[in-house]
Design brief:
CATH superfamily: Vaccinia Virus protein VP39
Bound molecules: S-adenosylmethionine
Shape: globular
Order of helices and strands: EHEEHEHEEEHEHEEE
CATH class: Alpha Beta
CATH architecture: 3-Layer(aba) Sandwich
Strand content: 15-25%
Number of strands: 11
Strand order of the largest sheet: 6-5-4-7-8-10-9
Structural class: alpha/beta
Number of domains: 1
């Protein structure tokens, strides 16, 4: 087995400091940067893109890796808004390829055997995520990250899908996770050891 050791304090300490000395990372982006670096150079698949915030985190963490980001919707209207989070800003990142419109559940799943990290952040209804998990199961050998898996009020279907995963799975400590929960699931020969804050 190969062990991915996740040092919570080290990742937490890398978060930006707010005006009162507190650390901010409500979207879990420092974790994305950190894990991308562990697999560099590698291939990271993201679904979906939206404004490309998470895609850019993976890109920043691993400039030598390739980030391929899929979205079922092509949003050309984000091009000219001036919003720093606008979708087209990711075009300035040399190592991100965007594919839209493209349904992640229509890609030949054998492709995922080549991928080191998958980040799943799609419809949140639970149905699409369940289909995705079934499709990658025979092929994927890397680390799957699932966004927003621990908010039963907002996303009950998604939480249910995560809770029903029977293989090894981890909910990242809140300190470095997205505020609605970040799930991390090792496939293939991988196992994960989380070093808690203070250990
Ligand atoms: C929560 S947003 C993603 C946020 C993005 N990761 C970010 O950091 O800005 C979800 C996105 O998934 C897309 N989506 C939904 N179902 C999808 C599917 N089956 N395949 C690809 N993208 C999908 C939606 O169009 C939407 O843009």
């Amino acid at each position: 087995m190969k062990t991915l050791t996740v040092p919570i304090k080290e990742i937490y300490d890398s978060c930006d400091t707010g005006p009162h000395g507190d650390r901010h990372d409500l979207l879990g982006h420092k974790f994305y940067e950190w894990i991308a670096a562990q697999f560099a150079p590698g291939i990271i698949v993201e679904a979906g893109t939206l404004k490309g915030r998470s895609a850019r985190s993976f890109s920043r963490g691993a400039p030598s890796s390739l980030v391929i980001s899929y979205d079922i919707v092509y949003r050309s209207h984000l091009d000219s808004t001036g919003d720093p989070d606008a979708h087209d800003h990711i075009l300035m990142y040399d190592n991100i390829i965007t594919k839209a419109p493209m349904d992640i559940n229509e890609i030949n799943p054998a492709w995922f055997s080549k991928v080191d990290i998958i980040y799943l952040d799609i419809s949140h209804n639970g149905r699409d995520e369940k289909v995705f998990l079934e499709r990658i199961e025979p092929h994927f050998k890397g680390i799957l990250i699932m966004d927003d898996v621990d908010d039963g009020k907002q996303y009950p279907g998604l939480q249910n899908v995560f809770q029903n995963i029977t293989r090894e799975k981890h909910l990242l400590p809140k300190l470095i996770a997205a505020s609605r929960g970040t799930g991390v699931i090792p496939y293939g020969d991988w196992t994960i050891k989380i070093i808690a804050h203070g250990e």
